[in-house]
Amino acid sequence: MESVEVAAGLRGVDREEWNALAGEQPFMRYEFLSALIETGCASPRTGWTPRFLLMRRSGALVGAMPLFAKSHSYGEYVFDWAWADAYERHGLQYYPKHLCAVPFTPVAGRRLLSASPRDAETIISEALSLSKDLSSLHVLFATEDEAQLLHRRGLLLRRTVQFHWSNAGYSDFEDFLARLSHGKRKNIRQERRRVREAGVTLRRLEGSEIDAGRWEFFWRCYRNTYAAHGSTPYLSLAFFLRLGQALSPNVMMVLAERDGQPMAASLFLRDSERLYGRYWGAVAHVPLLHFECCYYQAIEYAIERGLAVFEGGAQGEHKLFRGLLPVETASAHWLADARFARAVEDFLEREGASMARYVDELCEHSPFKD
Fold first, then answer.
1. Which strands make up the sheet holding 156-166, listed edge to edge?
2. Mean pLDDT to the nearest integer, 318-334
3. Could you read off the pLDDT of 143-196 as tens digits, one per residue?
4. Could you tell me how far CA 338 lies from the centroid of its own chain?
5. CATH number of the domain at 2-162+329-364, out of 2.30.110.10, 1.10.3720.10, 3.10.270.10, 3.40.630.30?
6. What is the value of pTM for the model shown?
């Protein structure tokens, strides 16, 4: 017997069943999503109302979608503010909308959790049916296969760009540098030397090495990053403490110190193949320290651990000059109003052509030797 239900989170869902569908990427796992919801970071109070789709067959979980009803567009990283504004100017209501995504996390991965294409089709149908009384349904940072499946079901595709570093079998960081052009290699060495000359030392901590005091310091740094931009952080100390316990094997922190005192930190998650750059902050300014904490330490770590990819995240051409190359990501969008759907489709066609030219231009400026 088959059924699909809507759940207000993951309470009552078997963790092992969910994780068997989600795979090893940490962001879709039960531990990460439940931490976001149960610490209140992704909750109705913050504009993220969980409406998870759970598909069961003979009682066993065979499919799922992490779906949220959103009352705003913050924390998504695929920006639709202009669409919401157009709705408002025409006297229509854009919010709430449905969003399938990992809150506050622009990392691509599976969004239609199922063991078969037929079950994935059922999940899409249920999501569209559930969204028929709202303005729209958005599936962010899906895999390419999922994006094409969603497109065949009538959703519009949108491309964005991230910057990823790939491991070409480097023996160490110097081997990586040797593959870069002379100018880029010289620049990176100068940047790292200036951080050392400022008296900064760096440590990489993993799992249980990150105690409560270090998590508290990291959160202070994380808050400072948001404060510097005049905004409020999405994630709480309670979330990070829970993350450190629930996903301890997946967590790596870079700690920067001077005169024995911590002054900056960056946080990464990992699985068996990839390292994911996530958050950073500092309590004192040191020129170029951001690049050391967020990129060079990550690349060194990935080489040492034999990881295939370091995902440096979206935005910032400065990443290109440090060995991270452009990679397209895909999202899919369905709008209930046919008139707006046509207008958005026209916009996405123009945006997609512009994005392709942008990626081509970035590739022409590769930091690697010919």
1. 48-50, 67-70, 97-100, 136-142, 325-335, 156-166, 309-314, 274-282, 261-270, 251-258, 200-206
2. 94
3. 999 999 999 999 999 999 999 999 999 999 999 999 999 999 999 999 999 999
4. 30
5. 3.40.630.30
6. 0.96
